[in-house]
Amino acid sequence: MKKKSCLSLEDQRNLDAFEHLLRIIRARVNGVAKRKHVGVYLSGRAGTGKTVTVEDTLRDLKANYQYINCRVSPGGLYEAMKANPEDVFVVDDVTTLYKHPQGLQVLLAALNGRPDEPRPVTYVLKGEQKEPTFDFLGGVIAISNRPLHRDPVADAVASRIRPLEHEPSDEMIAAVMRSQALKGFQDMSAEQCREVVEYVVEQSRRCEYRLDLRHMEHGWQDYRLWKDGESFDIHWKELIASGMSRILQEDEILLFPVNKADEIKAQRETVRLAVETFPGNRQKQVEFARLAKRTFDRRLGELKRLGLLPNCHIASLPAKSSKG
Predict the structure, then answer these.
(1) What is the pTM of this model?
(2) Average pLDDT over residues 226-243
(3) CA-to-CA dists, residue 203 to 133, 210, 279, angstroms
């Protein structure tokens, strides 16, 4: 509470609101760990503490859990569950699995039943049973930056799992950053940490990039590199600015890795899906698409001119969009 008193009243309110959101996550995790629910699907913007909160809560509960945060096949997930049938599985941002019908079928079987009763899981490949059926008694905590896509299998998973959307505001994240800065960081003082935080906030707004808690610690390390004379005379502000610009570029390249024509086509499809998923809510549309606002508006205008948006969504579009 002493550290909180150094924050402005607005930051204190935003910090309290953010901590309330984290308590909701902890409650959902506790529900899975204590077998009140078979699982939870936690979605929301990146860099807002979703994974850290889930793991910290499971450790505090002394729950046995398996953490998967890299590419995993449906068969790989099946084998992991078979080897640890009573554990909580934290599946973090494995988008290839969520988009894979067989992967969702494995999740569907593991979630199909009461949380306190065995749920039989069988993996079948090319018409033959891969391994004997086993009973799964654990839970699943799926974490993603995006909600499940819509199809019958994904909808079936969603009907069995407790959904939770974690969408703190930029004001909340800025308050968390300022609160963390008060503690200092390694050999940095609280004042130095706060200076970096304010620059990260300013740079994020300039780049039209939503605040990310990871940018804060990256920024602190850039400051330490400069302070220790190891940055080849590049100022810490320039290091941070170049790093955040690089993140913006990589996000677009990773989403659309082929050529310019394919990139535009993929961006249009992403914008179309965003508008259909969140009709009338421009903020969530832009967040879902993960594009700069200027790029989003450009693709949006192209979709309108091409007549590729359903009539029911036209009214939700901005009146003016960029040309190009």
Answers:
(1) 0.71
(2) 92
(3) 53, 10, 29
